[in-house]
Amino acid sequence: VITKSSIPVNNLKIDISGPVVTETFTAGTGTFTITGLIPGMYRLSISSPSYSFKSADNVYVASNATQTINIGLTGKGSISGNVRDELGRAVSYALVTVYNPLTRITVSTYTAINGSYMITDLDEADYVSGCYPSSGTVLALDKSTVTVTGDFISIQNFILKTSGTLRVTVIKNG
What we know:
This protein is about 0% helix and about 45% strand. By secondary structure, the protein is mainly β. The strands form 4 sheets. It has a 4-stranded antiparallel β-sheet with strand order 3-2-4-5, with no helix packed on it. Strands 7, 10, 13 and 14 form a 4-stranded mixed β-sheet that branches. The N and C termini lie far apart (about 85 Å).
């Protein structure tokens, strides 16, 4: 098991499911060996707080055979940016959310006093992002889509625009 940069990953848990259910850990070289499996189809799953979930499905194990499975890991990504109003002023305490439609997980944070924010530990995916002004303001919601790629920080800036005003004049007929 190696990263995208070809660096071996040590002590990573590998879950094996199929005719036999077991687990093992990678060695310092990123390699792992599983013995005692009976022939059949297996799934190898890797999950770690530092890397995006990976699996190898439909791995066939034959009798008296050795099989090599190469699994590349991708680190978690981040989204960072700034929230400003139409005049370029920082918007503090705005709520920034990202939603992963595949996992249905939403992660949120508030902007700092300088309008900056960062959301970390995100799996690779396309996220729907939104920025909601703090209560009591007249700024409108801003939404967009941002792609997170592992091992990178995606930049997503928001500009909150002043909400329009609807003025109604009632005139009496007659």
